[in-house]
Design a protein that fits this description.
Strand content: 35-45%
Order of helices and strands: HEEEEEEE
CATH topology: Metal Binding Protein, Guanine Nucleotide Exchange Factor, Chain A
Radius of gyration: 14 Å
Distance between the termini: 35 Å
Helix content: 10-25%
Number of helices: 1
Structural class: mainly beta
Largest sheet: 4 strands, antiparallel
């Protein structure tokens, strides 16, 4: 058996679609393909299915910044600012 094989299989088996909303004004921001379980910490750009923002990482309803640009595991991502969004799905 190879080390880590089970963890990868477990993560790949838990892929689902979620909707991400602004907590302040409830505007729909993204439809996102989430990998794994747990809290939403980051959104990989390649996993964003529908982007309802202007690309500036601010809510187009109220102007609140909800994420920051960054690289996670050598992949471009939006690092979510905790408490600024909520998830359904």
């Amino acid at each position: 058996m190879s080390a880590g094989c089970g963890a990868r299989d477990k993560m790949q088996s838990r892929v689902y679609t979620i909707n991400i909303f602004c907590r302040k004004c409830r505007t729909h921001l993204y439809k996102y393909r989430k990998e794994g379980e747990g809290h939403l910490m980051k959104c990989y750009k390649s996993n964003i299915i529908e982007d309802h923002t202007r690309g500036d990482l601010k809510c187009h309803g109220c102007g609140q910044e909800f994420a920051r640009e960054g690289m996670v595991h050598n992949r471009p991502a939006h690092k979510v600012i905790q408490g600024k969004v909520y998830v359904k799905g």
